[in-house]
Design brief:
By secondary structure, this protein is mostly beta strands. It is 0% helix and 37% strand.
Length: 193
């Protein structure tokens, strides 16, 4: 019954969907059914002030993870346990990205440990307005996002093309599909050894 949301002020809100209560600027907590936590160290215009994408990995009895990669910030994984979001990241990656931040998706074999992969599309250079910028598809260990497993910039043959702002990668049947503004739908899969 929980809902996580973020927005242009770099703050995450954990809401109880069955008891939303009313918004109060002083964060009155449990009585209103939400938890508020800043994601970014600074919240100034054109700083880390926009969260465009979140994704989540439910891990059963283990702590579950909420992933956030805000504009001008680093990738962070927050543990969620017993309906409480730990505001200290469980893991992070010190690779800040520009606008629009990381566009996230997750694949895993259910709750099985060691099977989670966090996929993220980022702009390879500063992305200004609706201009075209090369994109990069990243794969991170979802249990520890400080560990990047692969990215599409490692080999020219894997280049993503121009980023399609806010287009979430789709993972299905062992492949990752990524939309681009280069008139190409990129499809990634395992390479034969």
């Amino acid at each position: 019954n929980l809902l996580d949301i973020g927005g242009k002020i770099g703050v995450l809100f954990l809401l109880n969907r069955t008891n939303l209560g009313q918004y109060q600027a002083n964060n009155q907590g449990a009585a209103l059914g939400f938890q508020e936590s800043p994601v970014c160290a600074s919240q100034v215009y054109n700083g880390c002030d926009e969260i465009h994408h979140l994704t989540y990995w439910y891990r059963g009895a283990s702590p579950s993870y909420l992933y956030v990669w805000a504009w001008n910030d680093s990738l962070k994984a927050f543990a969620l346990s017993n309906s409480v979001l730990n505001t200290t990241p469980a893991s992070s990656n010190n690779m800040p990205v520009g606008y629009p931040g990381g566009i996230l998706a997750l694949s895993a074999n259910g709750t099985a440990a060691g099977t989670g992969i966090l996929w993220a599309i980022t702009a390879a250079q500063p992305y200004i307005g609706d201009g075209l910028a090369p994109g990069v598809l990243h794969a991170f260990d979802a249990s520890n996002v400080s560990r990047e497993l692969w990215n599409s910039a490692m080999s020219p043959a894997d280049a993503l093309g121009s980023i399609s702002k806010f287009a979430v990668p789709v993972v299905t049947n062992g492949k990752v599909y990524a939309a681009t503004t280069s008139n190409v739908l990129q499809v990634y899969g395992l390479k034969p050894q």
